[in-house]
Amino acid sequence: MPVDLSRYANNSSRMRRVLLTTIVGVALLFFLLGGPLRTVPAGHVGVKDFFGSVSNDALTRGIHLVVPLTRVVKMSVQTQEIKEVRSDREARRQQQHEGRRDRQHENGPANYPRGTVAQP
φ and ψ at 101, to 5 degrees? Predict the structure, then answer.
Protein backbone atom coordinates (compact mmCIF):
# COMPACT_ATOMS: atom_id res chain seq x y z
CA MET A 1 0.00 0.00 0.00
CA PRO A 2 1.67 3.23 -1.14
CA VAL A 3 1.59 6.27 1.17
CA ASP A 4 1.15 9.76 -0.25
CA LEU A 5 3.63 12.09 1.60
CA SER A 6 3.03 15.17 -0.58
CA ARG A 7 0.18 16.40 1.58
CA TYR A 8 2.46 16.39 4.66
CA ALA A 9 5.09 18.47 2.86
CA ASN A 10 2.48 21.08 2.02
CA ASN A 11 1.26 21.06 5.62
CA SER A 12 4.82 21.65 6.93
CA SER A 13 5.16 24.80 4.85
CA ARG A 14 1.83 26.06 6.17
CA MET A 15 2.83 25.30 9.77
CA ARG A 16 6.06 27.24 9.31
CA ARG A 17 4.10 30.26 8.10
CA VAL A 18 1.71 30.05 11.07
CA LEU A 19 4.61 29.69 13.49
CA LEU A 20 6.48 32.62 11.92
CA THR A 21 3.34 34.78 12.01
CA THR A 22 2.77 33.87 15.67
CA ILE A 23 6.37 34.74 16.61
CA VAL A 24 6.20 38.08 14.78
CA GLY A 25 2.81 38.82 16.40
CA VAL A 26 4.11 38.04 19.90
CA ALA A 27 7.24 40.16 19.30
CA LEU A 28 5.09 43.06 18.06
CA LEU A 29 2.77 42.70 21.05
CA PHE A 30 5.77 42.67 23.41
CA PHE A 31 7.14 45.78 21.71
CA LEU A 32 3.84 47.65 22.01
CA LEU A 33 3.21 46.56 25.61
CA GLY A 34 6.76 47.57 26.55
CA GLY A 35 5.75 51.08 25.67
CA PRO A 36 8.15 52.51 23.09
CA LEU A 37 6.55 55.96 23.35
CA ARG A 38 7.31 58.20 26.31
CA THR A 39 5.89 61.66 27.00
CA VAL A 40 7.88 64.34 28.82
CA PRO A 41 5.70 67.25 30.02
CA ALA A 42 6.67 70.91 29.73
CA GLY A 43 8.93 72.11 32.52
CA HIS A 44 10.56 68.67 32.83
CA VAL A 45 13.37 66.67 31.25
CA GLY A 46 13.47 62.91 30.94
CA VAL A 47 16.44 60.77 31.90
CA LYS A 48 16.55 57.32 30.26
CA ASP A 49 17.30 54.36 32.55
CA PHE A 50 17.67 50.97 30.88
CA PHE A 51 18.15 48.31 33.58
CA GLY A 52 20.36 50.60 35.71
CA SER A 53 22.34 52.07 32.81
CA VAL A 54 21.60 55.80 32.72
CA SER A 55 21.90 57.63 29.41
CA ASN A 56 24.00 60.79 29.13
CA ASP A 57 21.48 62.65 26.98
CA ALA A 58 18.27 64.08 28.41
CA LEU A 59 14.90 63.98 26.68
CA THR A 60 13.33 67.40 26.21
CA ARG A 61 9.59 68.02 26.43
CA GLY A 62 7.40 66.16 23.95
CA ILE A 63 6.83 62.61 22.73
CA HIS A 64 9.88 60.36 22.29
CA LEU A 65 10.45 56.87 20.89
CA VAL A 66 12.62 54.79 23.23
CA VAL A 67 13.69 51.16 23.47
CA PRO A 68 10.94 49.10 25.13
CA LEU A 69 11.40 48.46 28.87
CA THR A 70 13.40 51.70 29.19
CA ARG A 71 12.30 53.71 32.19
CA VAL A 72 12.17 57.49 31.71
CA VAL A 73 12.52 59.43 34.96
CA LYS A 74 10.93 62.88 34.75
CA MET A 75 12.78 65.66 36.56
CA SER A 76 11.49 69.19 37.02
CA VAL A 77 13.55 72.08 35.68
CA GLN A 78 11.10 74.75 36.81
CA THR A 79 12.37 77.50 39.08
CA GLN A 80 10.52 77.93 42.32
CA GLU A 81 9.89 81.26 43.99
CA ILE A 82 10.22 81.19 47.75
CA LYS A 83 8.68 84.07 49.67
CA GLU A 84 9.72 84.89 53.18
CA VAL A 85 6.75 85.51 55.42
CA ARG A 86 7.28 87.34 58.69
CA SER A 87 4.99 86.92 61.63
CA ASP A 88 3.23 89.96 63.08
CA ARG A 89 5.38 89.71 66.17
CA GLU A 90 8.61 89.92 64.15
CA ALA A 91 7.26 92.85 62.11
CA ARG A 92 6.34 94.80 65.28
CA ARG A 93 9.74 94.09 66.81
CA GLN A 94 11.51 95.36 63.68
CA GLN A 95 9.36 98.50 63.57
CA GLN A 96 10.11 99.23 67.23
CA HIS A 97 13.82 98.71 66.65
CA GLU A 98 13.82 101.02 63.62
CA GLY A 99 11.83 103.63 65.59
CA ARG A 100 14.36 103.58 68.43
CA ARG A 101 17.24 103.90 66.01
CA ASP A 102 15.57 106.86 64.25
CA ARG A 103 14.87 108.65 67.55
CA GLN A 104 18.46 108.16 68.69
CA HIS A 105 19.75 109.55 65.42
CA GLU A 106 17.46 112.60 65.63
CA ASN A 107 18.34 113.38 69.22
CA GLY A 108 22.09 113.12 68.70
CA PRO A 109 24.74 111.99 71.17
CA ALA A 110 24.15 114.94 73.52
CA ASN A 111 20.73 113.58 74.46
CA TYR A 112 21.79 109.97 75.15
CA PRO A 113 21.26 108.84 78.74
CA ARG A 114 24.33 108.92 81.00
CA GLY A 115 26.64 105.93 80.71
CA THR A 116 25.83 105.09 77.09
CA VAL A 117 28.42 105.25 74.39
CA ALA A 118 27.52 106.91 71.13
CA GLN A 119 27.98 104.56 68.21
CA PRO A 120 28.60 105.92 64.72
Answer: -65, -40
Ramachandran class of 69: left when φ > 0, alpha when ψ lies in -120 to 50, beta otherwise: left
For 82, which DSSP code? Answer: -
CA–CA dist 62, 26 (Å, integer): 29
Residue by residue, DSSP assigns 40-92 as: E-TTEEEEEEETTEEEEEEE-SEEEE--TT-EEEEEE-----------HHHHH
Distance, in Å, from the CA atom of 58 to the CA atom of 47, rounded to the nearest integer, reads 5
Cβ atoms of 77 and 40 closer than 8 Å: no
Distance from C-alpha of 70 to C-alpha of 47, rounded to nearest angstrom: 10
Backbone angles phi, psi at 57, to 5 degrees: -95, 145
Rg (CA), the chain: 39
* Tens-place pLDDT, residues 36-89: 888 899 999 999 998 888 888 889 999 988 887 788 899 898 888 888 776 777
